[in-house]
Amino acid sequence: MLELLKRFFKKDQLILLGAGVSVTIIIMALYISQPKFLHLLNLKIYDNYLRQYHQPAATQVPVIIDLDEKSLSELGQWPWPRYRVALLLKYLTAYGATAVASDIIFSEPDRTSPAIMQQDVKRELRIDMDFTGLPKDLMDYDRLLAYNLRGGPYILGYDFNHGITPKEHDCLVRPAKVAVLSPPDAPSPHDFLLKGEGMICPIPVLAEAAPESGFITTTPDLDSVYRRVPLLYSYDGQFYPSLALATLMQATDRENIVLKMSPVGIESIRFNDMVIPTDARGQLLINYRGPSRTFEYISASDVLNRKLAPGSLRGRIAFIGTSASGLKDIRATPLDPGFPGVEAHATIVDNILSGQLLSVPDWAPGLEFLGMLAGGLVTTFLLMWARASWIILPVLCMGGAMWYGSVLFYQEQRFFISPMYSYINLGLTFITLTLIKFWREEIAKRYIHGAFAHYLAPSVISQIMENPDALSLEGQEKEITIQFSDVRSFTTLSEKLSPTQVTDLLHDYLTPMTRIITEHEGTLDKFIGDAVMAFWNAPLDIENHQEKSLRAALAQLRKLEELNDIFLDKYGFTIAIGIGIHSGPVRVGNMGSADLFDYTLIGDNVNLASRLEGLTKYYGQKLVTSQAIKDACGDRYYFRILDIVRVKGKEEPVTIYTVYTPEEALDRKDELDLYEKAHQAYAEQDFNSAETLFRQLRESGAEPVLYDLYIERCQHLKDAPPDCDWDCVFTHKTK
Question: What is the dihedral of CA 673, 675, 680, 681, to 10 degrees?
């Protein structure tokens, strides 16, 4: 597998790919394990959605009958006598309430009942107390309340208390009738529902009389915020409905509930053609409509004092509860840290009746998993092929698309699809891979600086540092300009010097020569004794590399004139060099063995450049270039043709030139014009005229080697005339 990847990706890309995949795997493992701090962060993202996109109450059905501070002030502290509670229930139904639910548990007998007061006084004070003229029905307020509960649309609350096992006769609340729809071999719903270990219930006389009852048990999340509520509880193998669900059943006159199962838990609860999506444990996400008092609150004292308009509660569901802080039924929600618990029941009823139910669908983990995978891998592949600064905008767009998609699910379908893990993977992958790229680039820069500091111009090294991707050390074919230079008769000269002086001479000569090369954006390839090999257009592309090589060569020749004055004083002699320049396609890159290699060139054109340098001595020139250099430089320099030759080892003939600056050509105009005529006569096989012209040039004292060469050649060709198809090519037998 690794070998296959190496065929398609470079080493640095494989490192980034491995790091990106590793980060994605780590985030996926975190998603599966759900660590506490990330779970809490996810809850806060959900809260943010709810705060930003919550909608007002969709129905006006729920109403809250509030045991508020006003009621407690006017009618006395809680608990009130049960006859007053009975009056409150009666008045509410008289005002037209369809159902009345109590968010208060009547778990103890009313100690203010006359019958109980008689018992207490007799037991504690040993006094017989009698209530003259009091109707018998008012002697026990609990029985009075029970009488009013029978046959009315009333629902009492109770609470599951974990860890407390009550006595068998304590609780007479009735379980719900639930039909279970489940796939074959599905586990029992009791395996998923929250389980109660004990109950805090209304006293038996009230529990038995109430048509319906529902639990008020809720459990906050880890941060003590109430976001969801169980709709069913499992207790002693039976199903028990929540207060909100039991109230709806009473209001719609429905007794049966359908519990739909999936292989991973509970999927939904259905009754009266209403489908309520839940989590696997039968809990409903509460779609809070706003802070406290989003729904209508009516003071209990106003009901008891008959201050409401007749029929004002017709068709509505009333929840009796309290907003008084002293009664301790205040809870934290995503929208309000001081939310009365009774209003949560009203909110659930509104959610179910309106059908605006929030849920996390069964396929949400799969989609979130896919988002994580896409975010990590897309970011990885972008960073494999582009700079980190270039992909900031695409990454931001991808993050925005994830957020928009999540919000769209929430607003249109009321599905909560969390983008958190996708964001974590996206951000962590980007940061990790960017740091790795930075680290690798720093390593590459140090390597490049170490490898090329003595071979390249500072400006070229700066370009490579700014854009390391532009550098390719792998073998590639490209057009390169190659320069060879050599000190003539260096062996003979070095015999006159001590080894130390030879070293000093080479240092004094090579230092300025190589500096000129790098100043003209050339790359120093190697020193071959006293010879220098350099090239242009690698490792970076160099514009007009042929002309820059030529400029460097002319600058080297001018510098040598200055150096020779120093050499004459220091060593007692001057030196001469020959420079050959050619341009053409070669193979450039790291060459050598697996353990030892060098960045250099190979190819036929490299050999030709070396041959041109060797011809400088033969033609008596300081500089010899090929036709390729002349074609690239155009008329910016004066190119004097030297010959058309077939160098050793090559069959194709090459036209060679020496080069003058425009100023030099102007100073030698007469000589160069005469030379052109002489060479033209030679090429046309008019060897008599050519010899005559070359002799005139020779008499001027300039270029003795070149002119003597052509004089001798003309004499030879006159004695042994060439064939009619003579191509004017001279073949060199030696290097």
Answer: 120
